[in-house]
Amino acid sequence: MGFHRVGADVNEKTWGGRFREATENIVESFTESVSFDARLYSQDIRVSQAHARMLVKVGLLTPEEGEQIVEALQTIKNDIEAGRIVWRQELEDIHTHIERALIERVGEVGRKLHMGRSRNDQVVTDLRLWIREAIDHLDALLADWQRAFLERAEAELDVILPGYTHLQRAQPILAGHYYCAWLEKWQRDRDRLADCRKRVNVSPLGAAALAGTSLPIDREFVRQELGFATLCRNSLDAVSDRDFAVEFVSALALLAVHLSSWAEEWILWATTEFGFLDLPDRFCTGSSIMPHKKNPDVLELIRGQAGRVMARLTQLLTLLKGLPLSYNRDLQEDKLAVFDASDTIMRCLTVAIPLVRASRLRRQNIAATLDYGFLDATTLMEYLVRLGIPMRTAHEKVGQLVQECERRHCRLQDLPPEVYDALVPGLGASVYEVLGIEAAIAAFQSAGSTARVEVEKQIAYWRQHLQSQPWASPSPY
Ligand code: ARG
Fold first, then answer.
1. pTM exceeds 0.85, yes or no
2. Is residue 136 domain-shared with residue 257, that is, in the same domain?
3. Centroid of ligand 1 to alpha carbon of 31 (angstroms)
4. Are residues 97 and 134 in the same domain?
5. Which residue in 89, 205, 344, 449 has its CB near the most CB atoms, within 10 A?
6. Which residues have CB under 6 Å of ligand 1?
7. Residue 333 C-alpha to ligand 1 middle, in angstroms?
8. pLDDT, the chain, mean
C-alpha cells in the first residue's frame, strides 16, 4: 500500500500529548497496521456506533451528540467504500483513521467518542466480529461444498471403485460410499467452526486498555447492540485473549489438511496410471513445451496452499507463547494470520466447488481394472467364516488361494472347483456365488458399510441435512 505523507505534527497523534518530537518516518512505517487492518473498517464503525449509543444511554453524550457521531460514522463508511479515504501511515491503524475522519467531520464532539474504551478492547472486538462473519460465510460455502459431493454421490452411487489401504487394492466400495466419506470430514470441519464461534461470540468491549474504566459505561448494552452472546468476564483477559483466533485458524488448518488430502487423491486419480477421473479442460492448465499435457494445477495449488494455512496457525501460536498479560503490540500481527488463513480457504473452496461438480468418474476405465488385485478375497474369507471355519484358518486358506492365483495368473473366480474342494470339501459347488466384484460388493451388510442400502441411507441423511443449510452468497471479502 502506498501512503500519502501529509506531515506528522506531534499533536496530530491520538497519543501525542506527552511527546516532544515527531516520530521517525521509519518508525511510523514499521509500526503501522492500516495497510492490513483497513479491512476491519465496517466492524470498527459498527463497534463505534454501538459505543456512541451506549454513551448516550448512560448520559456521557447527549442524544444530539450521539446522533451526530453515528451519522458521521455512516458517511465515513460510505467514503471508505467509495475509495475516498486516503490511508496515512502516521495515523497508524484503521481505528485512528476513522476517529480522525470523525473529528474532521463533527469537530469537538468527535473528540468525545473514545471515552471509556481503548484501541486494545476496540481492535479485539473488531476482530471477533470479523471472524464471526467469516465463520458464517465459510459455513455457507462449506454447505455448498458438501452439496457438490452429495450430487456426485447421487449421480455415481453405483460405480464400483477399488477401495484402498496403504494405497494397495483392498476391498470394493461404491462411489456413493466414497463421496459420503468426504461429506463426513467436511461436516466435522463445519462443526469445529461452529464450536469455535461460541468462543468468538463474546464481547470484550469495555475492558478499555486493560483494567476497565472509571466511567459508568454499560457493557451489556453494547453486547446486545453487537449481537454478542455474552461478555468477557475479566478485562485483562479480554484484551489479551486471542485463543478464539487460534481456534479459528486451527479449524481452518485442519480443513486445509482435508482439502489437501482430497486434492492429492484426485491428482492420483487423474493420472494415466489410475485413469479414474476426468477433470474438465476448463479446470486444468497446460505446458508451454509439452503440447500433450493437461495438468491438475488447481488441485496441486489446493494441496500446496494447505501449507500456508498450517503456517498461519504456527505463526499465531508462536506469537502468543511469550506474551505476558495483557495487551502487547505483538498482537497486531494476529490479523495477518487470520486474514490470510481465511482468504486462502475461501479461494480454495470457491474454485473447488465447481471443479467437483464438473468432474466425472471414468466408469469404463475403473470397471476394466476391477478384476485385478483380489478385491473379493476378504469376502471369500468371510464366506468361509460363515461356513464355520475359524477366522484365522480362513484367512490362511484364502492367502494360499491368492498365492495359487498369482502362480496361474488368474482371478479367484478362475480357479477350478477342485482347488476349492481341496480346501473345504464341497466348497467348489457354492463358492462362485461370492466371487467376483459384483458378488463381493453385494455381500456387505454391516451398518455404515458400503452395502448399497447403507450408502442409500447415508445419501438420504445428507440430502435431508443439507436441505436446511444456508446457501453461500458471493464472498463479502
Ligand atoms: N493496531 C493495533 C493492533 O492491531 C491496535 C491497538 C493498538 N494499541 C496500542 N496500545 N498501541 O493491535
1. yes
2. yes
3. 9
4. no
5. 205
6. 33, 37, 93, 119-120, 123, 327, 329, 331-332
7. 10
8. 95
